[in-house]
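Supplementary Methods, section 5.1.

A reviewer requested that the exact input to the structure prediction be made available. We therefore reproduce it here, unchanged from the version used in the analyses.
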Amino acid sequence: MKKYLGFGVVGNFANHLEQAGESNDFADITGEDKDAPKGIFPFYIPDSASVLGRYCINNQAIILPTNQSFKVQAEPEVGLECDLEYLDNKVTKVIPRFFMAFNDASVRNDENATKLSQKKNFSDGSKAVGLKIPIDKFSSGGVCDNYSIASFLKFDGKVQEYGESSELISYSYFYEKLINWIKDKLNTQKEHSVLEDLPEVLRESCYPSKIIIAIGATRYLELAKQRFLQRGDIVSIVVFNHKKYTLERLKEIVSMDCIPADLKDISIIRQEVR
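The structure derived from this sequence is encoded token-by-token as follows.
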């Protein structure tokens, strides 16, 4: 994935921005409707001379920033691996091929950050992706109908739920509505407030044919709202077939020292905080 451009969608789950303390950053950004996401940010731009050129996906560890005053939260999300097609340097198609668990861990208190992306790529262990699950069709009636996302935090020898367990179809924008919105933003989003000029990012990246895009973080439970990540914590994010797995079974799985390799219909991230 080192050649894939990495993007994230902000504000695609009701109330997450308020929980993350970022709602004021988007107060003057209005969407197509009240439930619309706020925009798209880059978290990784291959070969960029900026900090966003640092490859930041580490599926074993969340590596905390060198600035020890920074507070970090995990962000449980669903990631999509997509193909992009262009005509005259405009995106004409966004084609989702795979979905997976994704951790968009973020710094919450960097007062010098002028862009959302500056809180995202904080080390070479600030993102993670789970096993890719093929998409048959990214629309109602497809495989994603049967999947949910859950997340857990293990500390002091106990595993607790971290974010709300949510069906994928409960995202504010999903399926065709989300893909059409992503295509529009890749073509039209200009630099404004905490967001970057996306057509310029695509141009500088020589119009990549593949991207990873995290489509929004779920709402936090009380534990995640009150406790920032500490060294030794274990973060687990799971995208799973909710017709085959219960939350109790997931808790058992992520409690194991070694997650079985033969599990089906599930995408798991398990990172130690270092």
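Residues 5-146+164-226 form a domain with the Fumarylacetoacetate hydrolase; domain 2 fold (CATH 3.90.850). These observations are discussed further in the main text.
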